[in-house]
Amino acid sequence: MAIGLHWVMALALVGLFVVGLYMVDLPFSPQRLKLYNWHKWAGVVVLTLAFLRLLWRLFRRPPPLPAAVQQAMPAWQRAAHHATHAGLYLLFFAVPLLGWAYSSAAGFPIVLFGHWPLPDFVPVNPDLAEALKPWHARAAYAMAALVVLHVGAALKHALVDRDGLWARMSPRGA
Asked: Which of 60, 43, 66, 44 is nearest to 4 (CA)?
């Protein structure tokens, strides 16, 4: 379950980030509206998956790093490992919640899959919307940076250290 959620969220986050970058520069059009709605729907799905992933992690603790890997890692790498994971979990929630708050404040409610209206996260307030918009973007960029760091560390363990850590979360295990 943990491996499956990891990879589904990984693909969804990359897709959301790429679509987000693309859609913000589009002129007002049906295509832009469609992408914004898709982006919001996917964000709600990611928020739901993040909640499921957190619940799974709380009730099914991941196994500790293998002793050989822990001994070979300098203390700063172990600290970076924990900080990166904590930051990712924080941003799994912060990015979609900031987006939902921005959408609500801007007066554009989320209607999940075009059928289920979600409650507004905050009241309509154009000033609040303008304040929230850059925070959603900043949080998304911060998450992208942590994802790049996470991928780089995973590749280091797979290609340089060859310590078997990659195999623990390999998509083949999902």
From this structure: 60
Amino acid identity for residue 75 in this structure: A
User: Among 33, 138, 140, 130, which Cα is nearest to 122's?
Assistant: 130
- d(CA 12, CA 20) in angstroms, rounded, equals 12
What is the CATH classification number for the domain harbouring 80? 1.20.950.20
Mean pLDDT across the stretch 38-66? 93
Q: How many domains does the chain have?
A: 1
Backbone angles phi, psi at 133, to 5 degrees: -55, -50
Distance CA(76)–CA(163), nearest Å, equals 18
Cα–chain center distance at 4: 15
pLDDT value of residue 66: 84
**CA atoms of 102 and 130, how far apart (whole Å):** 8
Domain extent for 130? 2-173
How many CB atoms sit inside 10 A of residue 28's CB? 7
Tell me the two tokens of residue 116. 């289920």
Q: Is the pLDDT of residue 150 over 60?
A: yes
pLDDT tier at 170, thresholds 50, 70, 90? confident
Coil, helix or strand at residue 163: coil
CA distance 99 to 60: 29
User: What does pTM read for this prediction?
Assistant: 0.91
Q: Is 28 helix (H, G, I), strand (E, B) or coil?
A: coil
